Amino acid sequence: MEQNKQVFISHKQVPRGLTLLGRNQQQSASELQAGARAELTPSPLNQALSSMRGRLVYQTARFLINHEGFTNYVALRIPLAKQIIQGAIPHQNKHPVIVELGVGFSPLSVLLAEELPNATVIELDTEEIIKKRQKRLRNANLPQNLESVAADLSQVSLLEALGGRKPDVIEFTGAYYVHDELIEVLNYFHSVLNDEGSLAMYIPWQPGVDAIRATARFFKRQIGDYPGIVRNVEEIHTLMSRTNFQSHTVIFPSQYAPHLKPLDVEVMVLAKR
User: Fold this and answer.
1) How far is the C-alpha of 240 from the C-alpha of 182, rounded, in Å?
2) Could you tell me which CATH number the domain at 5-272 has?
3) Domain-by-domain residue ranges, the chain?
4) CB atoms within 10 A of CB 229
5) Which of 65, 95, 189, 250 has the smallest number of CB atoms closer than 10 Å to its CB?
6) Residue 66 backbone class (left: φ over 0; alpha: ψ -120 to 50; beta: rest)
7) Per-residue pLDDT reduced to its tens digit, 205-249
């Protein structure tokens, strides 16, 4: 087996505002999503990245959340992100740098590295997560253009963790930040991106979460309690207007694959620097 590159970084101070990026991005949610992918789209990669616990948690969640649209959303989440990221790369950029921030147990970075051999794809998370991830993928034949970086972003800047390389695309989930904090983080991403760079950000969508609650058999109040949730498109426009990004597009999973009728539990915001 050929191992992809691994870099471990820690113990250096960063500006005060960037400590927001050091938070644990909900390992349990990543385990659940990995378990769901292993059940719904059981490729060797998805199965390797999942755990028994994650699969059991998803099976329980599927029983509790009796909604076919939710199941279709889970299955489409990674393909939608992959398509949006590939489309965000400028045509003239033959060697883009793509970063999946808070990679968890997502297959996205591996899939992008396989499909874009001239790109450098960097998956970044805490040391704990990266070690678990590498253990699960120890028998996988990973692409040579894939790098794993373990960094505590409350201690080092993102640019330092990336070895000074400015990314062309950052993929990120904004669920775990209240909006004032999220704006600070997004403006930092803006400063790190290349001049024509883009940010692809999933953010929870209140109408979709409410639809799940309406069909859930139990634990309705615990479903979708995300600090970063948005209620409507106008709220997204207001949020993004407070950042330094020049333009943005809101993409719904239901628009990506209308024939499957996925529930819009999250929306994707593609922001251009």
Assistant:
1) 10
2) 3.40.50.150
3) 5-272
4) 19
5) 95
6) beta
7) 999 988 888 876 544 444 557 889 999 999 999 999 999 999 999
